[in-house]
Amino acid sequence: MPLRVATWNVNSLRQRLEHLARFDAEQRPDVVCLQETKVADGSFPERDIKDLGFDTVLFAGQKAHNGVAILSRRPVEDHGARVWCGKDDKRHIFARIAGVEVHCFYVPSGGPIPDPERNAKFAHKLAFLEEMTRWAAAEAKARPLLLVGDLNVAPLETDVWNHKRLVRSVGHTPGESRALLGVLKAGHFTDVCRRFVPETEHLYSWWGYRFPASFEKNYGWRLDHAWATTSLAPRLQAMQVVTDTRTWEKPSDHVPVVVDIAE
């Protein structure tokens, strides 16, 4: 059986425990990486998640903002987290499972203005991606590693529903796209989603709340990613973007990405 890894920005875990249970029943992942859990560690619903059959539940969170977690049915051989840009804002966690080092990231969204001099949140985002690039070059490419999460950048023209209209919007500016692709290049990563869906085809994982008909009209962005290092890429078997979750009652604005890896 392959190792099945899912990544999902749930946009408040406690509000979407039923969604997680439904997704788990339908997809049966071995590992689930969550972003935007929005729950402090003392209030994390660990018992509810273990009742789904996840033996190990790792989390790093804070009240109302950010937060990441890794849920695993398989034994966890090692785990940890890293503080990025000197800010312990709960954006990263990792675990080694079945010999694969799984890193779960939640990159800063960057605020509304794509100017680091006028917008500290955007400056933080660029600094975060720069630090990820150094980390990828120094550490990532040397071992079987899967990087997943909400990276908050849609780097390709076909990663958004209208490139010309959105090219000046945070999340799809040329500078952000170059920065994210720089991380990809530095770690010698394979973009798993684009391994299975050609770059010429549109592919999305996020449909915003601001325009209620965004999902129906398919005004999407690909903000959620899965990347595999050179030593892991030959073992990739399948990938799917589970868009059905966006149709559920009170859904997350993101949908899960699921990756199957041969053992």
What does this molecule look like?
This protein has helices spanning 17-27, 46-50, 120-138, 163-166, 174-186, 192-196, and strands spanning 3-9, 31-35, 56-62, 65-72, 76-80, 92-97, 100-106, 145-150, 190-191, 224-228, 236-241, 257-261. The protein is an alpha+beta fold and 263 residues long. Strands 3-4-2-1-12-11 form a six-stranded mixed beta sheet. It has a six-stranded mixed beta sheet with strand order 5-6-7-8-10-9. The chain has one domain (3-261): Endonuclease/exonuclease/phosphatase (Deoxyribonuclease I, Chain A), CATH 3.60.10.10. The longest helix is centred in the middle third of the chain and has 19 residues, at 120-138. The protein contains six helices and twelve strands. α3 (120-138) runs parallel beside α5.
